[in-house]
Amino acid sequence: MACEASVSPTLSRSLVPYIVPAAQPERLDFGTAPLPRRATSRFALLLSLWVAIPAFAQDSAAPSTGLQRAVVLTEYAPLSRSVEVARRLLSPLANLELARASAKTALRLQAIDLTQEAFTVYVPVKQPSRGYGLLVFIPPWQDAHLPAGWAAVLDDFGMIFVSAAKSGNEENVLDRRIPLALLGAYNMLQRYPIDSDRVYIGGFSGGSRVAMKVALAYPDLFRGALLNAGSDSIGDREAILPPADLFAQFQNSSRLVYVTGSEDSWNVQHDMASQASLHAWCVFGLEVETMFRVGHEIAVPYAARRALAALDRLSSDGAGKLSACRARIAGELSADLKHVGDLLDRDQHHDAWRSLTKVDARYGGLASAEIIELEGRIGSSR
């Protein structure tokens, strides 16, 4: 393959197709530090983010209302750029690996070719005075359809619905499901007058778990999440914490509504763990809507109605409670970082690395600068 000469020799040749440079690529300046000796299999996931996109197209179609199927969107968003997805959703060490691996290779900007994608859109006929609300929905299935009975609910709330085809559980999260959701949101914001305080992400089952990741990473776009029968705890490899400024915004203003059937015992247990995790990380704008005598099913209309109403009214708890909680986390982080530094001071580099990876997974973007500094100390001591 013609581009192999420019790829770091520490990378597997099987990864080369993911990082073929574009004809006129935009170089991304990640720094010039050498590749770490600890190359991991995460490269396969990290580098799959980078694929080609077509030139930007202009959308001249007039906005439509009602149910629209197989809609082709045209506008690309800065927030859906692969480097931005990585910055928000990957840990500091994972971003460092990606940066070093790509230091000599021009990477393409977006993971999605919108000319090959189709979306289902529902737009209520009546526009609210402050603009529409927006619900971006990530499904577990491959087709894009409006759940039965939801149209009347969306009409009552003046809320646009958009969902991408081929974004189900079998698709890659970072290079398809999340970018498709971001592009769906961006294009709706370009086409319709939308109230920015009523932009929500949602999903069902595995799609709900992805929606939670998106809500955590993009609180500057999505003000809340409808989590229908699927959730995770945050502050681990399943849901890395984003950079500190974004996480502060998530704590301050995000609203999360859990909608799960009472007979869906597996997800009820995971919801409880997820809610406890959010409280431990100082996120208090939560509400639970239980569908009684319902199993693992998408929200029935009455539950969807209650969930949207909850999203519109929820607010976080008082600043005093949040301030005390943040102080606790800061103390825990400081102690964990000090532990890594003490191990390095005692020349226990293997134990220091192992402890640093735990800090990386737990605190993610909250400790980016400290993690990178400690990684550099570990690397220079070998």
Structure in words:
This protein is of the alpha/beta class. Among the domains are: 114-316, Alpha/Beta hydrolase fold, catalytic domain (Rossmann fold, 3-Layer(aba) Sandwich); 321-380. It is 41% helix and 14% strand. The chain is built from 12 helices and 8 strands. It has helices spanning 42-47, 82-89, 92-101, 150-157, 173-191, 206-217, 244-253, 265-280, 301-313, 319-345, 349-363, 368-380, and strands at 66-71, 119-123, 132-138, 159-164, 194-204, 224-228, 255-261, 286-291. The protein has an 8-stranded mixed β-sheet with strand order 1-2-4-3-5-6-7-8, with helices on both faces. Strand 5 (194-204), helix 6 and strand 6 (224-228) form a beta-alpha-beta unit. The radius of gyration is 22 Å and the shape is globular. The model is unreliable at 1-44 and 46-60 (pLDDT under 50).
Tell me the series of helices and strands, N- to C-terminal.
Answer: HEHHEEHEHEHEHEHEHHHH
Strand content: 5-15%
CATH classification class of the domain at 114-316? Alpha Beta
CATH superfamily of the domain at 114-316: Alpha/Beta hydrolase fold, catalytic domain
Distinct helical segment count: 12
> What is the SS-derived class?
alpha/beta
